[in-house]
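Quick note —
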Amino acid sequence: MEYRIHRNLHTDFNIFEDGKLQERSYFIPFSSEKAFENTDYKNERYNSDRVTVLSGEWDFAYYKNLSAVPTSFDTENAKFDKVNVPCTWQRTGYDQIAYINTRYPFPKRPPNIPSDVAVGIYRRFFDADNLQKRKILTFLGVAGALAVYINGEYVGYSEGSHNTAEFDITSLLQSGKNEILAVVYKWSNGTYLECQDMFRENGIFRDVYIIEQEENHIDDFLLRPEYNSDGTYNLKISVSGSFSDDTTIEISSEGLFEAVLKKSYETEIEALSVKEWTAETPSLYEVHIVLKDKENVVEAVRTYIGFKNIRIDGNVFLFNGKPVKLLGVNHHDTHMTKGYAMSIEDMERDVQLMKEYNCNAVRTSHYPPD
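Predicted structure written out below.
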């Protein structure tokens, strides 16, 4: 299959995204509450009946210069190696890791960026059915910039290495086998915002997956606690998505609150008496959000929420009304063999090490974590 690889997306300051869906909260949808009862929150991405994870072995072609990529890139005749996704290509034998702080790894002449940058081209096949349903392609982390193609057609573009990029690929799919091509530019205009004290690496370093949605579906939600002077909390709730006149949203947390949303899909629960969250007693409440069309469950989401209040009195940091000294660390997504790619076990191990050193705070420098 032939592709016309874009040559100027990464150098055009008028473009930082193209064809990308609006940013939203992270969550994994299921077909029902019963469907997510069979998996824990940490692993639900891999066990949802509405999500197909594409991580694993991908075809990969590395080009030291974009100019070396054929104008018409034919995947039938291209020479691909095999790499594991997620990972960075520097940890797979390509290019060189750079550790620098304030300097840039190229001549600094903003707003100009080198046009002939290194490029990694990833290819993967996947099967598609139920073509009448909406399909969302999600990349949780790609460094530096990403252009996506499906079945020979351009889908979209995204900058911002550690930000999620999602694309609606419904109209581009065919029944059965489909080809996805992800073109990763080593540097882009966005690199000027990513000059940070860290290892500089590149590639698809977090999971890639496809979400399948019904016509009625949840796109985003917000749960925002507000502390009251009497020690209780109010909870502002809003849900957005594609809903019909018969749609209702049931949102609840066992033993804490229940609410039914319709039409406006927002409400506020007042004067909740809760067990507050701290680093030593990390109390969380499980929240279920269930979308119904009439009486039929269409989609279900599980999330967790904690309640805490913070204020500063002079030079004293008060956490839930008590003075606390912050004993913290900076944390980077760094693995000795996978680069930026970290598994659930890797992240848990880091938290265990922090707790062993009595840490009660962490700075997620310099980007959103997975």
